[in-house]
Amino acid sequence: MAVRLFFSRHNIGEIIVDLKARQGVVEHAETNICTGLDNPDEPLKCVFSTVSTIKVGTGTTARKQRSKALWYVKQRAVDSFGVRKLNPHFVPVGEETDIDRETLLSDYTPEVQIHNKRVVPAMQGVSKAIAKGDKHREKGESFSAEMEYNKALDVDVSNVRAIFGLGLVYMARSDTEKSLTVFEQLVTMEAAFDIEHKHLFNEFGIQLRKHELYGEAVQYYRRAVELADEDENLYYNLARVHYENNDWDGCFSNAALALALDSSHKHAASLCDIILALAADVSLCEKYGKIAVPESVAQRAVTLSKEMGIDRNRDASELDLAQTGEVSKL
Fold first, then answer.
1. Contacts for 296 with CB less than 8 Å, ≥ 6 apart
2. Fewest CB within 10 A of the end CB: N or C in the chain?
3. Domain residues for 201?
4. Residue 119 vs residues 49, 80, 111: alpha-carbon distances, Å
């Protein structure tokens, strides 16, 4: 069921009327195209401008010059508006900053024609290029996919979906050098870990692990934990990477953290099962190519199993010692 969060006493129509009244903007029929102008159930999405005065030159040649900047404004709540600058290609870029209603009314002027004729087509062009890239990637057409993702990045150099797409293309081609270049870019971008990108995020993490880039995978998931430290699935994913890398302390510690957040997390419980089984039967370590579980880790696993009721007597054949797949609700 949809929840209305954006409006109370002042709907967006009132805000726009107020803006136009204060700033002398003339009403035209086409101004109604911007999202939220007429429908109080929709948040505002439109382009606005600000004008500042800067000093150019020195001494007798000094003069003042007006500078106009364009911004993409998106309403987040009744009194909260996210603002991103438009680049020369008329696409919103950079980190979003927050302003309140009064700041929007006093400092910003709506630019509806620019929004409708320049920004919307530019944003649609980026989305189409990414969609084409995704289709090519799903078909295994990596070079065509790379071309489409680069088209999008030519317009929006920090587009998260296009960067993820490129990274997955390079992984599929086993191009480790380019994959790591993408990885280094992603771990510095908070937007890469937003919920809207959770499927791409998880797929990229899995590919890092499958290509045995364990150090990078650990860094990747730790970065995610910094931004969402109550997501039990991230701790499981970290444990999963440590399992592959024969780091039993890291494996158990993160599985335990996942279970502390969600005692019913079956994947994390399964990892604890595996640790117990391998600790009890060294021949299983040889069979599955794992190093021996340190006694200290085994003891911690025994203690946790008692506390959480994990079955320590399960037959090893029942356990998924191959441990496939990661999960995430980022």
1. 249
2. N
3. 115-229
4. 13, 22, 10
DSSP structure class, residue 2: -
Residue written as token pair 């190519």: 289
pLDDT category of residue 310 using cuts at 50, 70 and 90: low
Amino acid symbol at 310: I
Residues 219 and 274 in one domain: no
Does residue 1 belong to any structural domain of this protein? no
Q: Is residue 3 part of a domain?
A: no
Task: Average the pLDDT over each of 8-22, 227-241, 307-321 and give the range with the smallest value.
Answer: 8-22
Write out pLDDT tens, residues 74-116: 999 989 999 999 999 999 998 899 999 899 989 999 999 999 9
Averaged pLDDT score across all residues of the chain: 84
- The CATH code of the domain that includes 221 is 1.25.40.10
- Please, are residues 48 and 109 in contact by the beta-carbon 8 Å criterion? yes
Q: What does the DSSP assignment read for 19-86?
A: HHHHHTPPP-GGGGGSBTSS-TTS--EEEEEEEEEEEES-GGG-EEEEEEEEEEEEEEETTEEEEEEE
Predicted confidence (pLDDT) per residue in 264-307, tens digit: 999 999 999 999 999 999 999 999 899 999 999 999 999 998 88
Report yes or no on 156 lying in a domain.
yes
- Does residue 5 lie within any of the structural domains? no
Work out the angle between the directed axes of helices 214-227 and 198-210 (0-180°, nearest 10).
150
State the DSSP string of 202-255.
HHHHHHHHHTT-HHHHHHHHHHHHHH-TT-HHHHHHHHHHHHHTT-HHHHHHHH
pLDDT of 253 higher than 90: yes
Q: How many CB atoms lie within 10 A of CB 116?
A: 16
pTM: 0.74
Q: Give the DSSP letter string of 147-216.
A: HHHHHHHHH-TT-HHHHHHHHHHHHHTT-HHHHHHHHHHHTT-GGGGSGGGHHHHHHHHHHHHHTT-HHH
User: CA-CA distance, 73 to 112, in Å (whole number)?
Assistant: 11
